[in-house]
Design goal:
The complex is a heterodimer. Chain A is built from 13 helices and eight strands. By secondary structure, chain A is α/β, with parallel strands linked by helices. Chain A has one domain: Aldolase class I (TIM Barrel), CATH 3.20.20. The N terminus of chain A is likely disordered. By secondary structure, chain B is α/β, with parallel strands linked by helices. Helices cover about 40% and strands about 20% of the residues of chain B. In chain B, the strands form eight sheets. A ten-stranded mixed sheet of chain B has the order 13-14-15-12-11-16-17-31-25-24, sandwiched between helices. In chain B, strands 8-7-6-9-10-18 form a six-stranded mixed sheet, sandwiched between helices. Chain B has a five-stranded parallel sheet with strand order 28-27-26-29-30, with helices on both faces. The model of chain B has no long low-confidence stretch (mean pLDDT about 95). The chains are: A alpha/beta, B alpha/beta. At the A-B interface, helix 2, helix 3 and helix 12 of A face helix 1, helix 11 and strand 13 of B.
């Protein structure tokens, strides 16, 4: 007889809740730095690029499936504003959009009126954390703060740790930190580990999202190694970019990081989340990233506990595609409320 | 209809069908019945016999096509012959315009062809859409360029198209194989009779109409559908100048035998059992995707499929774990669904063969693993399969499955990896995975294969030659190396041809005459020269050597099969090290040989007088021999490869490699020069040779032993066995350890060599009785000799950190 495993039943999902079916996994506790593991990392760029290039040609998500997947993408979104001209008013507007990301008539038409669909989080600078927490009261939507001298991360360590503590005290439940790129570029893995460890300690119960700024790390091998070290140091999420680097989230980088978190999970049992950020603007991009997660990490990484989009303009394009699905006509930006 | 809200929860993939309307419309426009495409028009088959072609995904009938008869083939060949002069006269630019038009027309209709291909063959639409059809267009446009450059490229000077070409293509990449065959043929000014595979004739028929619409002249491309009988009629047809075949090694053998002695050019792209070598420093996640591309691409129905994974023992368990996880995520189903990785097997008989081979593997102790999901029950599907606990001796390690079945074995050291990789009759492709460039570039030349992919698999391009060594066939497709398969020297038309009787008369020892005055010299006993030593023959029989006046000069050994065996064994031991020497070093040996021959020029000239009967001719032959050695000493470090411009970020190195262990049947005439004209290029390129000197006057060769011994020719690189052609040549031609054979001999002997070579499909260069003027540098030496002494290995090396 040919040896096979028994076919698994399709996972039954809850029907009424707008929240994806997967429960929040335990946090990644981290582990001691294991330099042997870091040093033996191999990433073949050409092969990674080939795989990344065919992710979107091997799978096609159309019609009702596309609408369903795009709605899911909204629920995975860290709706973000990180501009120098942000104001409290701007942030409150964003929070309103976070609560009601899609026009109610469209949700009705899509059978999602009672699903309570919201984005996953709102992401702002420390200065606006309190305003965002206030604006989101009762929604259950967490506020994430970018921190540690975002986007460059070059302030004194004490300043950076103080910034984390201040944001947590102000009510942020997620902290997006940046690492010191020079630690990666010069192979100072212990320094990188200690840095992220300190960030994690400063976070307390808040979740730590570690931005690697992959556009500035030079090679995919560095991306993989930095991912591993960040996870060993206790990152809850690893995140590609600040959105301020020259190159943002690319699929080859994403694939490399997802393979790293998969391997980390296989070794430690811990599930670490992934957040691509920067440059993800279209519904088509969003589908590609979801395909990447489903194929390379698995379905648990299609829940907000383990996957986020860092995006500011993505939602608007998804809204248009959803309206197209409902009406059969191509939509326009001005038909959807601004964030 | 599944609800959006439900999909939001489950995040499953839905159906994503590709529309088949236009493809069905095309079939319907022909009422689902197709004739043959001959001389630019649809014609009915002569005897009314038909074939059905079915959809592998559900077994339903797609269309009925014609079973071409011998009479139909005859008609098609006549049309191709009639079209030939005008097509040739069109010239490079005229043909380039046609090839360009074919490529562009194909791009415009790409989706129709992709859908039709997936319907007929069962391959996923993703592959036909993103790989097959774009490669087809690329092939025609690339060869439009070759057509344009036929007069401009110096390397192609003095060549012309071979004439009417019969092409027989397989069912695994129907239109792509058509392109690989048709594009170079048309570019070189040949006309074509093409037989598509019986399971997958539709895209070829659709292409015939496309060619008509693109203005290709009638008769230049003819398509005759049918089964093996049609192919046999084409192979046997006297009006065909060349046969190009892609398919099984079994059928390749039949074709080699059938064409033996016909003088037809032959290129064969046959089976494989290609190794996929994973070193312990490879990027294992990328390796897994490489395996997907290697063996689950096109359901594994790929001649160069990486069907033997050789993994370093230290990482093998991790790799198996990762592969199994990946296999769980592969999606199999309707080939026209845009979200499937794997489609259907082409025909029930293939499916049955796969099942049988896997069952046999399991009986032999292999652990057979398949993913938990079930393959579709309707249609002809077989799930991806990973076999572990496979020993090199098991069926699954040796026999080509031609399905989605991969066997995994382990190795300890790079040397062992190479040894296992080469432990096969085949030699089509290999894939090497390591992040260490030193290792990759060390192993790439060591594996027996026509194509080596470093950290990638199953990449193809029109600019790079593809083809095999050993029982994977000969000839290349793609690149300038592939173009040459359709070219012949344009100035050989007037060379005289000698038949077997004339050849025998030439070599017959003159009537014995009185010894005349005794020379008084010490009696001499010539021997064979094997493994660097003069060795006694296995059996004590001799061949008398007489001069023109019939005086006995010497008695040389009459070699037998055991002498040949011993010589091949000596060559085997020597060849690897000889090929590894630097080209500069091989050049030095040849120069030294020339030097030492020159020292004894007078002696050789006197000896050759016994053959020529005249001192001038004898002296001229010796002088020419010294020059010839210089020529190949000169070439030894200058016969370079190329770097092909394939459209990926990589270097594709087209490296000339020695064929290996070569047999050489020296020409009857020019006993010294003729022999050295074969030996020198072969040895210069790194081959080891077992040669039969001219039985007409082997004494020149016997005298050469001492020159070889004093010239630092390593033992076993050159082995000389004297004797008769009847006794020596059949053993050499049939010897499975001989990689190639050159025969400068009459057509009858060449036919015998060709027929006997099928055991290991050795690479042949046979003169078919055509006589060369060996003293003429244009005929007696040059690039053609060097090309025949090597085979091109394309090594793909992607880069980027």
């Amino acid at each position: 007889m040919v040896q096979t495993r028994t076919a698994p039943e399709a996972p039954p999902g809850p029907r009424s809740s707008g929240h994806p079916p997967h429960a929040e996994p335990p946090r990644n506790p981290g582990m001691p730095l294991e330099l042997d593991w870091v040093e033996q990392v191999r990433v073949n760029r050409s092969a990674v690029e080939r795989r990344a290039a065919t992710l979107g040609t091997r799978r096609s998500v159309k019609k009702a499936w596309q609408a369903g997947w795009l709605l899911r993408a909204i629920s995975l979104m860290d709706l973000t504003t990180l501009a120098g001209d942000d104001t409290e008013g701007r942030v409150r507007r964003l929070c309103a959009k976070a609560r009601r990301p899609v026009r109610p008539d469209l949700l009705e038409a899509l059978g999602m009126a009672d699903a309570g669909l919201t984005v996953a989080a709102v992401c702002v600078y420390h200065r606006f954390v309190e305003a965002a927490v206030d604006a989101l009261t009762g929604s259950g939507i967490p506020v994430a703060a970018v921190s540690t001298a975002f986007p460059h991360g070059l302030a004194p360590m004490e300043t950076r740790l103080a910034e984390i503590r201040a944001s947590v005290a102000a009510g942020a439940r997620e902290i997006d930190v940046v690492v010191t790129r020079s630690h990666v570029l010069t192979g100072q893995w212990t320094a990188l580990y200690d840095e992220v460890r300190a960030f994690r300690d400063a976070c307390g119960d808040a979740h730590l999202k570690t931005i690697l700024a992959t556009g500035e790390l030079g090679t995919l091998r560095n991306v993989y190694r930095a991912s591993l070290v960040a996870m060993m140091a206790g990152a809850d999420f690893i995140k590609t970019s600040t959105g301020k680097e020259g190159v943002n989230a690319t699929l080859p980088v994403g694939l490399t990081m997802v393979r790293a978190l998969r391997e980390y999970g296989e070794h430690t049992g811990a599930r670490v989340g992934f957040k691509p950020a920067g440059g993800i603007r279209t519904a088509k991009d969003a589908l590609l990233w979801l395909i990447l997660m489903k194929e390379e990490a698995g379905d648990p990484w299609l829940s907000p506990h383990l996957f986020r989009f860092g995006a500011s303009s993505l939602l608007a394009d998804i809204e248009r595609q959803l309206e197209h699905h409902v009406t059969g006509r191509y939509s326009a930006f001005h038909r959807h409320p601004l964030a | 209809m599944t609800e959006v809200s439900q999909i939001f929860e489950t995040m499953e993939y839905g159906p994503a069908p590709e529309a088949t309307g236009p493809a069905n419309d095309w079939i319907d426009a022909h009422d689902g019945t197709f004739g043959l495409w001959i001389d630019g028009a649809w014609v009915e088959g002569s005897d009314g016999e038909t074939l059905e072609t079915r959809r592998p995904s559900d077994g339903t009938l797609l269309a009925t096509v014609t079973q071409g008869s011998a009479a139909d083939v005859d008609r098609a060949v006549a049309a191709a012959r009639a079209a030939l002069p005008a097509w040739r006269d069109l010239g490079p630019h005229g043909r380039a315009r046609h090839l360009y038009a074919l490529g562009r027309a194909l791009q415009r209709k790409a989706r129709l062809f992709a859908v039709l291909e997936s319907m007929d063959n069962g391959k996923p639409i993703r592959e036909s859409r993103d790989l097959d059809i774009p490669l087809v267009a690329r092939h025609f446009i690339h060869h439009a360029g070759w057509a344009q450059l036929m007069d401009a490229e110096p390397e192609l000077a003095g060549t012309e198209g071979v004439g009417v070409v019969g092409q027989i293509i397989p069912w695994n990449f129907p239109l792509l194989m058509l392109a690989w065959k048709v594009a170079p043929a048309l570019a070189t000014g040949c006309t074509v009779v093409l037989k598509p595979a019986e399971y997958t004739p539709l895209t070829a028929l659709c292409f015939a109409e496309l060619a008509r619409d693109a203005g290709l002249p009638a008769g230049v491309l003819n398509v005759v559908t049918g089964d093996g009988r049609t192919g046999a009629a084409l192979v046997d047809h006297a009006g065909v100048d060349k046969i190009a075949f892609t398919g099984s090694t079994e059928v390749g053998r039949i074709i080699r035998k059938a064409t033996a002695g016909s003088g037809k050019r032959l290129s064969l792209e046959l089976g494989g059992k290609s190794p996929f070598i994973v070193f312990d420093d490879a990027d294992l996640d990328s390796v897994v995707e490489g395996v997907v591309d290697a063996i689950w691409f096109n359901q594994g129905q790929v001649c160069c499929a990486g069907s033997r994974i050789l993994a370093h023992e230290g990482i093998a368990p991790r790799l198996v774990e990762k592969l199994r996880a990946r296999m769980e995520r592969l999606r199999m189903g309707d080939p026209l669904d845009k979200s499937v990785d794997m489609g259907a097997i082409v025909a029930p008989v293939q499916l049955e063969r796969i099942r049988e081979l896997v069952a046999r593997g399991e009986d032999e102790g292999a652990t057979v693993w398949q993913p938990s999901w079930a393959a579709p029950r309707e249609g002809w599907f077989y799930p991806p399969t990973l076999c572990t606990e496979v020993a090199p001796a098991s069926t699954l390690a040796q026999v080509e499955v031609f399905g989605p079945v991969v066997a995994l074995m382990t190795f300890r050291t790079p040397d062992e990896a190479v040894e296992l990789a080469n432990d096969t009759r085949y030699g089509l492709a290999a894939s090497i995975w390591t992040e260490n460039v030193n290792l990759a570039l060390d192993v790439a030349p060591a594996v027996k294969a026509g194509t080596v992919w470093v950290n990638c698999s199953n990449l193809f391009d029109a600019a790079a030659g593809f083809g095999g060594v050993r029982e994977s066939g000969y000839g290349r497709e793609g690149g300038i190396e592939g173009l040459r398969e359709y070219l012949r020297p344009s100035d050989q038309g007037d060379a005289p041809v000698r038949d077997a009787a004339a050849e025998a008369a030439l070599m017959a020892a003159p009537e014995a005459a009185d010894a005349g005055e005794a020379s008084g010299a010490v009696d001499r006993t010539p021997k064979h020269y094997i493994g660097g030593r003069q060795v006694r023959p296995d059996a004590e029989y001799v061949l008398p050597v007489r001069d023109r006046k019939g005086r006995l000069l010497a008695e040389v050994p009459r070699g037998n099969r055991k002498d040949v065996r011993n010589a091949v064994e000596a060559a085997r031991k020597a060849q690897g090290a000889w090929a590894k020497r630097t080209a500069h070093n091989r050049a030095q040996v040849l120069y030294f040989l020339a030097e030492n021959l020159e020292l004894r020029a007078d002696e050789f000239a006197r000896r050759l007088e016994g053959w020529h009967g005249a001192s001038d001719a004898a002296r001229a032959e010796v002088d020419a021999a010294v020059r010839r050695l210089f020529t190949y000493a000169a070439w030894a470090d200058k016969w370079d490869g190329r770097v092909h411009h394939t459209p990926f970020r990589n270097v594709t190195l087209a490296m000339p490699e020695p064929v290996g262990i070569m047999g050489l049947v020296a020409p009857a005439e020019a006993p010294l020069l003729g022999l050295l004209s074969g030996l020198a290029p072969l040895v210069a390129m790194g081959n080891a040779v077992v040669a039969l000197p001219s039985p007409g006057f082997p004494l020149a060769a016997v005298d050469l032993y001492q020159v070889l011994e004093t010239s630092d020719v390593p033992a076993g690189v050159i082995n000389l066995v004297t004797g008769t052609r009847d006794e020596v040549v059949p053993t050499l031609a049939a010897h499975d350890g001989v990689d190639g054979l050159w025969a400068f001999a009459d057509r009858e002997l060449c036919a015998q060599v060709e027929a006997l070579s099928v055991g290991n499909m050795k690479r042949l260069w046979c003169s078919q009785g055509r006589v060369r003027r060996w003293t003429d540098a244009r005929q007696g030496e040059g690039p053609e000799f060097l090309r025949q002494a090597v085979q091109i290995k394309n090594v793909w090396v992607p880069y980027g950190e």
